[in-house]
Amino acid sequence: MSREKNVTIYDVAERAGVSASTVSRVFSSPARVSAKTTAKVYQAARELGFQREGSSYWEHDKRTKKLAIVVSNMSNPVYSDILSGFRQTAVEHDYSVIVINSEKDPDDEHQAVEEIIPLVDGIAFPGSRLTPQSIKQFEKQLPLVLLNRFVTGHTCIISDIVKGMEIACDYLQELGHNEVLYLAGQEDSWANVTRWRALQKATRERGMKLRQFQDLASGIQGGIDAANRWKPDIATAVIAFNDLMGIGFMRWVQRLGYRVPDDVSVIGIDNSVACEVSAPELTSLDSGGSVIGSKAARSLIWQAENRSVRERKSFVIPVEFTVRRSTGPAPTQ
Length: 333
What we know:
Layout: H1 9-16, H2 20-28, H3 35-48, E1 66-71, H4 77-92, E2 96-101, H5 106-116, E3 123-126, H6 132-139, E4 144-147, E5 156-159, H7 161-174, E6 179-183, H8 190-205, E7 209-213, H9 219-229, E8 237-240, H10 243-255, E9 265-269, E10 283-286, H11 289-305, E11 314-317, E12 320-322
Helix pairs in contact: 1-2, 1-3, 4-11, 7-8, 9-10
């Protein structure tokens, strides 16, 4: 009776086109091997069904001194803030950073994570649309942190948007605004749902009227689309899902002959660098992008260096409200 042959590191080496000693280094000290070679070795190991006994990341000292961050939309300036804080903290702790652009595609994101897992000590996900099942699957293999999204049972870092919406509504009401229009983000976005619910609560508690424009394109184009639908009798104040949408709204509503803030006040969310160069400068809620990024890096590094302790914590980052020239007193009727 024939016995099935066990796959060895020599088989993996032959398939990957490297030496057996290189395969050994990939599994024991991947930081000493190039990312390209490491990926080839892991690909060969998967194809051959090679598994080291007890090969879980959490059980072995597989340290690469690399962290990954998966970004869904590189054109959004808030991700630049998150990435800046993430990278700065990683470098301070002698970690390098790999940036993955998933282009908002959950399938691409899933595949990219599968490929990058062998190369890094942890992964941060700002605004990820991975399913909870995928998140659970990946977290069995290495530390993960979710940013701007809450999933029970995982390490999450979010901004205190409930408090932020209360601050924004108090400010608008002091200026005489009692009608607010929300420009919604993508329907399946956790951040969008959370911001809408927080705004509903804040306006309801203050007796303010609230409407919502849905089915908008993302970013500046979504703001332009909303401006084409807006009329003065709809609302005197607009809160946009993010800064880019708020800037798009301001740009187009002014082309239509309205004045900001004389005819309509506009507030964005994220307080990105774009707020300071828009016309007029955009009032915005600061969701703490760089702080969130820094906190994510610290969490991943701590998890990587304390593998015997499997803690999952959620962190809520305070928001700040920056008033600029896009908001003013409500227009008199």
